Amino acid sequence: MGIRLTMAALAATALTLSATPAALAAEAGMTDEVTMTLGKDGTLHVVEKISGASGQLKRTFITRTRYDDSNDRLYQISNVKGGTLTGDVLTVTGQTVEYDVKGAVTPSGGIEELRWFAVNGWNQPVAKATVKVTGPGQVQNLSCFAGALTSAIGCTSASMDHGATQADFEQESIAPDQALTVIVGYPKGSSSGKPILDKRFSLSAAFTLDTVTGGALAGLLVLMLGGVALLYWTRGRDARVAGHESGKVDPVQNGHFSPPDGVRPGQIGTLVDEQADVVDVTATIVDLAVRGYLRIDEQPRQTYDAPDWMLVRAPNAPVNALLPYELALYQAIFDGRDVVLLSQLSGSFAAHLGKVRDALYADVVRQGWFARRPDTERTRWTTIGVVLVGVGLLATVALAWFTTYGLLGLALVIAGGALAVGGQYMPAKTAKGSAALAHTMGFRQYLFSGELGDVPEQHRVELFSRYLPYAVIFDGVEHWSRVVASVTGNGHQADNLYWYHGPAEWDLSKFAGSMRTFTQTTSGAISATRQFRSL
């Protein structure tokens, strides 16, 4: 019986001993034997022999770390064998993995330092790791850290051989979120390796003011000043011609009205401010009335009623004698009807106003006052400026993101903005246009001088009425309306002008107020239409 027990015990012991290697291997977990060789070109060649892993093995490399306040450091992985690399993730397909690393060497003082995360990012714990490092020179110093990436805790062991040609490192129990970082120093010049840096974006760095960006900004300033000088020259040319030919103009020839250079109110308005706007249309309506193409009848109203006027088509008016812009306006007002209230001017009237504006711009070019339509000239330069702003914004984003020259893009934005704004002043008059402007200003001086001149009394109503549309352009409606009323008014309730009728109990003493209200209301009605909202 004792012999049987002894034999059973020996058999059990034998089975236990025979099972120990496999059991221990299963309990030991993954091991990683790493051999690293630094070449003279600064490339680190790495061979890893892996054992004891279970399941699909993957490793996520650390390929970017902070270098300094402005840059990140990159590590480039290439020439992978024994696995496939997708982005930063290595999927192991064999027991041995090889790859090359660039960017792991840093010159520092009298040495160059190799730093690499020899073991990190495995998707399962590493029970034990050993690292052997050889390089193009003797080892000057070595160190290692284990744990988190920023850990300052040393690894299990670090040593070198007696000839200082090989550095050896060991570390046990490396978790998936931990790393074994090895550092080995070699004599300066042992390899040509250096860090690979990637500029980190920051607003302060992106818009650095240095020689290049400062010079570009200075150049922009010169360009803008040059543009201002050119603008002054083109506008100053108008002023010089106007100044040379300016002087008081007498619009009375042989007792009849004769505007300077035959210019009509709408033409003057476009000539003066280089825009076909609401005041030009309002003045033209008054001018058509004064010249006998329509009559303006002020409507009776109660105290709190809004003022209104009836525009009445003159029978047998010679509309064929009208200029294109006048005819377009005349048709817009009546549109096949004989009378219309000013308050009813909407719908089809708005549709025709675009033609009036185009005809006015075409007219000033046909007169030879501008080489090109002022609105086209403004639009062209403004569009170029807006496009330049857009290009500048894109350039600013690109330059700021990839370089430190973001200010160069801002320079384009500023230049484009200046051009877009300056485009409003780009239309320039010809010499003929400048001369016409000078005569126009002389006419304005006459209107506001208060001198009525030697005009026969029987002609004064018609003559001074002809002045009134020009006073609308020059913002002198109330002043000149008083002049008209003072010449013809006799205080009777039935007093009217041949082109303007007031309601009952109205006389010419109220004409100035009526005309002021009429022009303001007309301009407001035109401004509310679609084509003239932007003017």
From TrEMBL:
UniProt keyword rRNA-binding, yes or no: no
Protein name: DUF2207 domain-containing protein
Signal peptide: 1-25
Keywords assigned: Membrane, Signal, Transmembrane, Transmembrane helix
Species this chain originates from: Nonomuraea thailandensis
Domain of life: Bacteria
Entry's transmembrane regions: 212-233, 381-401, 407-426
Ranges of residues in domain Predicted membrane protein YciQ-like C-terminal: 257-482
DUF2207 domain location: 33-184
